[in-house]
Amino acid sequence: MSDAILCRFEAARSIVGDAADLAMSMRPPSGGPAATLKSAQDWLTEADGAVEALISARIGALFPEDGFQGEEEGRTRTGRLRWVVDPIDGTSNFARGRNRWCISLGLLDGDLPVAGIIHAPALGEVYTAVRGRGAVLNGRPIKASPVTDTRSAMVEMGWSNRVPKGVFEEKVAAILRLGAMPRSGGSGALALADVACGRLDGYLEMVINLWDVAAALAILEEAGARVSPFLRDGGLEGGATLLAAAPGIADDLSAALAVSLD
């Protein structure tokens, strides 16, 4: 990977660390949701905007020629290199004072994910990857799960209000028929990070956005997971389906869930 990408990655790690400190300082206490409801189960907190603004300003000052896209403000700058941020992934958890949320920042070179940072400060975890240099969790190399039998697998599915009625239940039923254990944790980025490090054996979301997955795509690739062609299937410009899986059960999950990995 080029020196230009590595320079950006190192700067971004520091910026995301500062953003994580800001998010922690703004985290609501445990209890009912302290947030605005945009639509069913789609929450917005003051921290979402503040964290995105911090990252955008700092990236823009260091690399003004780069593009930038955030969940809250959209695509505010264009460039061949594009930073994509979800300032608080798992906002429903964050808004209730829970720990399972993260800041996700990915770097794309055109349509190629080249670096990713997922920082979960309440969990004390930082996942990072640079294309061709492996994936790490808190500095230690990670790999996708070695599981080869779906009967011992743990598979998470994300929920979206954009999915037609009945689809979520149908896919969860397919997971159960494989003998796998279903999960749902409320953060797509962290679920994908869990696939990358082997804590989960698969993750499916029928409609997910680029800012949720831009960092995870680089991390999953470097960790050896198999991933459906999210960017090719429209993920660069809108919501698309994403399946990520441990290689040993990827074909079984793909067939059962009717999501192609090719």
TrEMBL record:
Keywords, A to Z? Hydrolase, Magnesium, Metal-binding
Stretches of the chain forming a coiled coil according to its record? none
Q: Which domain of life is it from?
A: Bacteria
Q: Would you tell me the protein name for this molecule?
A: Inositol monophosphatase
Query: What does the sequence similarity comment in the record state about its family?
Result: Belongs to the inositol monophosphatase superfamily.
Signal sequence residues = none
Name a biological process GO annotation.
signal transduction
Supply the PROSITE patterns for this chain. IMP_1, IMP_2
Q: Which GO terms label this protein's molecular function in UniProt?
A: inositol monophosphate 1-phosphatase activity; metal ion binding
Q: Which residues bind Mg(2+)?
A: E71, D86, I88, D89, D212
